[in-house]
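Q: Please design a sequence for this.
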């Protein structure tokens, strides 16, 4: 029975689930290490919290799971969107956790121009809903800008066309911000250039442009796609400097055209929008000057004619002065009578006043004036007393305050003097200690210098049994050749000086006699004195 069971067992190898999954994964990855798949994005809800993207690619009959890792998603030029038909490049692999196969995407691109147009229309509707394309946001271009900022490639024909057109119409100062206008990273560079021009300060070292031109030559929709990116459109909409979009030819339309303040069909047309024609301005100014002068002449002639008409309507001098002369004559004739009447009236008033001025009346007025004077004198004395009392009280108060201030000031000075005296004592003690330390250091230094002087002095050599030979002038004699026969010499020893006379010639060339080793075995050989 046991033998029969062993014969019925299968001969196939056994695998664990993990081993089988790993084998399948190696098989799929080896067979489909690099594939390009075309399909529609389905189930995309944006990047996961980890930064990875998970969705599916499908067509009419099949569907495959897809994943884009975080690092790859950051480098993608075209970001995945729901419903977009794309061509994905990557590798197939399996996910053992759910027994599914999936594609790990390394590159993503739209499937043809239709997909790009659909993506562009979807993005246009999104940005328009945010109000970035509203006409209320657009600003008027400056009539004659002093400085023009241009965002374009520095090596293309666009910048040459713009500069040539500006030079023909009205030369202006131009600042060029070089950027890439096509390929990876071009959208970020264009957006950074627009924001960079807006961050320049008024009156800075680099002048702030009055007008911006974003320009690029013509090309396909793929070539112009950088100007459809959200980062560029938002930068153009946020620009505080008026901006002209000059991307492509007249038939090319990009999203930056809707966010810009003006759209130019070509870069050359953008230069024409930026500045007027200088020659036409000169002719127009000259024409306006001639018209203004002709208007002034006509106005001058009209005012002269009006003045002449007014002069004819005015009366003559004789007519103007006739009535005043007649009035003057009547007044001159009535003046003597008026003087006599005025004299009689004043005489009657004087007589009436004189009748009222009797001695009794004057005496009563004098008494009243005297009484008023006495009353005013008493009031003045009382006022003086009151004022003096007030001043005395105020003086007493000020005296008390002054005394208190003086005492407080004296006390403060005493405290300050005590502090200064204490500080002086401390400084004196520190100075004494410093002087002692300095004197000790200088004394030690002097003792060391004395020891060094004693060690280097020739007198210490004389104490070891040597003698210093001097000539008659007191100068040291350094060689035997310098001594002549009969010369007077002075031999200086450690305990005194002895005079001597040279006898015979010197023998400096002779070999000195070696001292006997038997008589002085422990004494070293004598060295040189100088």
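A: Design:
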């Amino acid at each position: 029975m046991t033998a029969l069971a062993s014969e019925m067992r299968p001969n196939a190898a056994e695998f664990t689930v993990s081993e089988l999954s790993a084998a399948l994964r190696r098989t799929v990855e080896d067979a489909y290490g690099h594939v390009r798949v075309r399909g529609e994005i389905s189930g995309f809800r944006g990047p996961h919290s980890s930064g990875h993207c998970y969705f599916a690619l499908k067509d009419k009959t099949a569907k495959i799971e897809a994943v884009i890792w975080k690092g790859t998603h950051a480098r993608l030029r075209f970001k995945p969107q729901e419903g977009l038909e794309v061509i994905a490049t990557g590798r197939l692999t399996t996910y053992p956790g759910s027994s599914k196969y999936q594609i790990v995407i390394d590159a993503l691109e739209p499937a043809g121009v239709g997909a790009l147009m659909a993506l562009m229309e979807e993005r246009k509707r999104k940005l328009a809903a945010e109000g970035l394309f509203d006409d209320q946001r657009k600003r008027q271009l400056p009539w004659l800008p002093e400085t023009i900022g241009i965002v374009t490639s520095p090596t293309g024909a666009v910048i040459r066309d713009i500069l040539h057109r500006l030079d023909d119409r009205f030369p202006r100062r131009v600042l060029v911000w070089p950027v890439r206008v096509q390929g990876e990273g071009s959208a970020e560079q264009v957006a950074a250039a627009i924001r960079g021009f807006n961050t320049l300060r008024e009156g800075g070292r680099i002048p702030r442009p009055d007008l911006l031109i974003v320009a690029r030559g013509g090309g396909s929709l793929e070539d112009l796609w950088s100007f459809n990116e959200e980062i560029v459109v938002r930068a153009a909409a946020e620009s505080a400097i008026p901006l002209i979009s000059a991307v492509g030819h007249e038939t090319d339309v990009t999203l930056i055209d809707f966010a810009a303040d003006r759209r130019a069909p070509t870069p050359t047309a953008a230069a024409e929008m930026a500045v007027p024609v200088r020659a036409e301005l000169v002719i127009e100014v000259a024409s306006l000057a001639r018209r203004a002068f002709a208007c002034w002449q006509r106005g001058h002639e009209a005012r002269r004619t009006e003045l002449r008409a007014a002069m004819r309507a005015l009366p003559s001098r004789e007519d103007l002065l006739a009535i005043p002369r007649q009035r003057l004559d009547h007044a001159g004739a009535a003046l003597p009578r008026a003087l006599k009447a005025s004299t009689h009236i004043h005489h009657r008033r004087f007589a009436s006043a004189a009748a009222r001025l009797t001695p009794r009346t004057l005496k009563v007025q004098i008494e009243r004036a005297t009484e008023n004077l006495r009353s005013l004198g008493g009031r003045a004395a009382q006022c003086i007393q009151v004022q003096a009392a007030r001043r005395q009280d105020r003086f007493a108060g000020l005296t008390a305050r002054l005394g208190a201030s003086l005492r407080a000031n004296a006390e403060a000075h005493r405290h300050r003097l005590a502090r200064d005296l204490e500080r002086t004592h401390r400084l004196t003690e520190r100075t004494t200690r410093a002087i002692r330390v300095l004197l000790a250091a200088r004394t030690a230094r002097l003792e060391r210098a004395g020891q060094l002087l004693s060690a280097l002095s020739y007198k210490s050599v004389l104490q070891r049994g040597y003698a210093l030979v001097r000539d008659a002038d007191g100068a040291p004699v350094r060689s035997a050749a310098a001594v002549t026969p009969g010369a007077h010499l002075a031999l200086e020893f450690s305990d005194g000086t002895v005079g001597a006379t040279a006898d015979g010639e010197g023998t400096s060339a002779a070999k000195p006699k070696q001292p006997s080793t038997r008589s002085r075995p422990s004494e070293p050989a004598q060295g040189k004195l100088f």
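Q: Thanks. Anything notable?
A: The CA atoms of residues 339 and 383 lie 54 Å apart. The longest helix spans residues 359-456.
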